[in-house]
Chromosome partitioning protein ParB
Amino acid sequence: MRKQYHFRQVGDDTYIWDVHRLVKLSQNFKIQQIPVNDIQELNEAYWFPKSAPTTQQIIEHLQLVNAADLSYPIILCASGRVMDGMHRVAKACITTQSHILAVQFEQTPKPDFINIDADRLDYREE
């Protein structure tokens, strides 16, 4: 899995989670099927919240959607928001699936970083 982070704006702060850590923390959670239409982020500027994407950025996301493996569950925080798996969600929508595999935290873990510039994060493959 490529190195990636989940960013979420909380008030004036940006919370950042290491997705590899989220996967490890949730690996023994019960897998459930949830309706794709219940995923709130489908109607939000999830990947590009602050600016319009370039064509190249859209192409890169399309490639990730195409490569997404729906056999892996998405990861939801305690309130049901996506922490990992939006490319899988997009693929499920494109392939007209009504449900997607998911695991959910009962208590959302503390972020790994707060207010760190994305360019300062380590994106090397593990």
Notes: The chain has a mean pLDDT of 93. The chain has three helices and seven strands.
